[in-house]
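Exercise (ungraded).
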Amino acid sequence: METIVESSGLPADAFSAKCPTRQVLDHIAGKWTVLVVDALLEGTMRYTDLSRRIEGVSQKMLTQTLRSLEADGFVTRTVHPTIPPRVDYDLTSLGRSLAEPITALRRWTENHINEIEQARSRARD
Amino acid sequence: METIVESSGLPADAFSAKCPTRQVLDHIAGKWTVLVVDALLEGTMRYTDLSRRIEGVSQKMLTQTLRSLEADGFVTRTVHPTIPPRVDYDLTSLGRSLAEPITALRRWTENHINEIEQARSRARD
DNA sequence: CAGTATCCGCTAAGATACTG
DNA sequence: CAGTATCTTAGCGGATACTG
C-alpha cells in the first residue's frame, strides 16, 4: 500500500489534528455535500434542477455548498450569458472520483435504515 | 436492485426531506463519527485509547459521539465494575458494516488531499 | 433564472472545573 | 479512569426580501 505524502512532508492521516485531511473530511462529510455530489452523478444540472432534486435545501445552503465544491475542484460552474441566465453544474473527474465513496455511504444508509431505527427504539427503553 | 422500504411504507430515499435516512446520514457523516468508527476497526478500545488515537477530540465530543453511536446500534459499551473503572468500546456487526463505506471515504480523502489543495490554491486567484 | 443580502435562533463544539 | 456539569462562543442554517 502506497503512502500519500502531503505538501507539509508528513503522511496524510485523518487521525492527526494537523493534517489538512481533517478539514476536507469535515466538509465533504456534510449532509448537503453528499446529496449534491450524488445528484450531479445523474448528469449536468442547473441551479433549479438541483434545488428540486434535493428536497428541503435552502437557496443559501445550496449556493454555499456549490461554491465550496467548486473551490475544492469537485464541480465546475458554467455561466451562459443569456437572458434569463443559465448556469450549468457538472462534476469534474475528481468529483466523479469522490462520488464513489459518497454514493456508497448514501446507499449503505438507505439499505440499513430499518436496522438503525430498530436499534434506536430499543435504546429508548 | 432491491428497493428498501422503510417503516412508513415509503422507499428509503435520502433525497426526500421526510426520509429518516436524511437525519442518519447527517450525523453518520459527521467528522468525529468517521474517526471513531474507523479507530474501533483496529479493535476494542477504552475511552482514553480513543481520545489518544483521535487527536484533538474533546471529552465532550468523544462522549457525545460514542453515546450516539451506541443509540444507533453501531457500538457497544461494556462497563467493568472495577476500581478504577474500565469501559470497553466495540463495533457491533452493524458498526463493522458501516465501517466499510466510512473507511473508504477517509481513505479517499487522504489519497486525494494533494489534488484538493491544488484546486484550492488555484481557486484563490 | 440564478442568485445576493440581511437578520437571527439554535446548537455544535471547545474550555474549564469537578466527581464516583 | 471515565466520565458529568456548566459556561461561552462561532457559525450553521432557515426565513425573508431584493436584483441583474
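Further reading is listed at the end of the chapter. For now, observe: Helices of chain A lie at 21-28, 31-40, 47-53, 59-71, 93-123. Chain A touches chain B through 58 residues (CB under 8 Å).
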